[in-house]
Amino acid sequence: MPEPIVTPGYLAGRTLSVGSTGDIVLRPGEVVLTFDDGPRTGKTSEILVTLDSFGVKATFLMLGAAAQAHPELAQQVALRGHTVGSHTFNHVDLSGLDRQAALDEIARGERAVSQALAGAGQKLSPFFRFPYLSQTGFLRTNLLQGSTIVLDVDIDSKDYYKDSAAVVAERTLARLDQLGSGIVLFHDIHQRTVAMLPTFLSALEQRGYSVVRLVPRDSGVFGRDVIIAEASELRSCCD
Questions:
Q1: Nearest-CA neighbor of 181 among 30, 18, 9?
Q2: Which pLDDT value is given to residue 10?
Q3: Which residues of the chain have pLDDT under 70?
């Protein structure tokens, strides 16, 4: 575990430019903050305020349906310098769908988030997380072979459990201290997550951790219609 260091602004760490999932290699004491399932009115905006107050950036994996319903909120996340990726359209367990339906669900989610961000001149980043962390070898292989960066999870906060904010913070910190670094999974749709985040970030700073910002290596336009255009080809390559 890193030595505690209490220095204003220390919590903001390096920016890691990522071209593939394999590029996400963290050093001891480094943390990546990720938030799934948003944006959510009354929750996401409060989380943004907290992140700003600590000077750190996170990665938000948005549902297409949520971004479509709240485009201004999705835009706010990107405009504040956070990385925005996707998380399907309807939070479907992709392992229970046939291959074409799963690819279509991913593509639909990406289109919806991309369109929401475009209203403010912002672009979708090629980061994606499987709902429920449920995947198949076919889907993972084909996403990784394309331009998608699959975000896995090292520390699951389990903030979806009906625990107090303090319990969520303590559980997440304990797991992080055990591993020494990692990608942390939160959800910006729960009030307990909003409530626990200042305490959690303060504890990170006191323990000497730093928060790494993930950005895509390719800054060009991210076009995800490759999933649809090449779906039959991708399917046949792994049959």
A1: 30
A2: 78
A3: 1-9, 218-239
In this predicted structure, what is the pLDDT of residue 9? 58
225: CB partners within 8 A, 6+ apart: 107, 111
Query: What homologous superfamily does CATH list for 27-237?
Result: Glycoside hydrolase/deacetylase (3.20.20.370)
Q: How far is CA 60 from CA 84, 101, 113, 121, 228, in A?
A: 5, 24, 11, 17, 24
d(CA 69, CA 52): 24
What pLDDT is attached to residue 215? 97
Full-model pTM:
0.89
Q: Which residues pair with 18 in a beta bridge?
A: 216
Examine residue 198 and say whether the peptide bond preceding it is cis (omega within 30 degrees of 0). Answer: no
With CA atoms as reference, report the closest residue to 48 among 16, 88, 81, 87.
Answer: 81
* CA pair distance 197, 49, nearest whole angstrom: 10
Spatial distance between the Cα atoms of 164 and 233, rounded to a whole number of angstroms: 48
CA–CA distance, 30 with 130 (Å, rounded to integer): 23
Structural domain spans, the chain: 27-237
